[in-house]
Task: inverse folding
């Protein structure tokens, strides 16, 4: 309960810092996964969420939850030790047909197996995932882990998923990384363009994702730029030939010196 109250105070503090009038907010305290508020207000056209990562919840230990209209469509519940997909299914359920949801996620949910893979299959097969954006590590206070954004839509124009590798789009600020306005613009423009951009974005057919066992790790689809120094093979071979020739010349010089020393030693021996 203490953690919930602290979280509630944090929310109130953030709301007080907003420029939007307080009477425009409708804030409710509760358990989103088992006792959500605002049932009468959904669906929503815009949802932004940053749920806790790997939160423990009741999951399949509560037989009622599998029949919850938010979770039932996937046919499986998020693992009890990792409620990440429970929050995602909640957001999807409350999303309007013409709406968009953006959810900050831990990258592990993109590739782990078991129930999470089955939920990814449901989301891809039903064309609900619009985009996955891989963010840089060390963006958030208190943790250095990398995060990603999952964008959900219920009315997409194609059967493809956009994957953006923005893992390098940041600047170093003291001990953490920060997205600059330029970084944000680059990510947003790639999302709007919805096309392949070398080493940055790729629009992938959903059947290709299915072939890869519904693994949504961005690195599986967007090839990273090779920043290693390019080697000129012709120039390298010429340099090797020069070194070999120089080595041969040195050996000949050394052999000549040794021969002269041996000759002098023989002459000294003859005199004695």
Result:
């Amino acid at each position: 309960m203490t953690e919930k109250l602290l979280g509630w105070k944090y929310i109130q503090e953030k709301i007080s810092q907003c420029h939007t009038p307080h009477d425009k907010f409708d804030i409710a305290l509760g358990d989103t996964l088992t006792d959500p508020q605002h049932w009468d207000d959904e669906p929503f056209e815009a949802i932004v969420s940053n749920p806790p990562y790997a939160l423990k919840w009741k999951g399949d230990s509560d037989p009622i939850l599998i029949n919850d209209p938010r979770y039932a469509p996937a046919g499986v519940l998020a693992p009890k030790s990792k409620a990440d997909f429970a929050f995602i299914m909640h957001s999807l359920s409350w999303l309007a047909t013409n709406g968009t949801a953006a959810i900050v996620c831990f990258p592990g949910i993109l590739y782990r197996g078991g129930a999470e893979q089955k939920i990814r299959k449901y989301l891809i097969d039903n064309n609900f995932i619009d985009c996955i954006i891989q963010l840089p590590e060390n963006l958030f206070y208190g943790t250095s882990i990398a995060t990603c954004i999952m964008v959900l839509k219920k009315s997409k124009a194609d059967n493809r998923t956009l994957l953006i590798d923005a893992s390098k789009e940041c600047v170093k600020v003291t001990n953490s990384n920060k997205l600059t306005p330029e970084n944000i613009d680059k990510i947003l423009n790639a999302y709007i363009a919805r096309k392949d951009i070398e080493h940055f974005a790729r629009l992938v057919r959903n059947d290709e994702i299915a072939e890869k066992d519904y693994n949504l790790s961005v690195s599986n689809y967007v090839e990273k730029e090779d920043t290693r120094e390019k080697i000129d093979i012709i120039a390298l071979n010429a340099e090797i030939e020069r070194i070999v020739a120089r080595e041969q010349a040195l050996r000949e010089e050394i052999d000549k010196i040794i021969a002269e020393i041996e000759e002098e030693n023989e002459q000294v021996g003859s005199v004695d």
About this structure: The helical segments are 2-17, 84-93, 115-125, 181-193, 206-211, 233-271. Residues 232-272 form one domain.
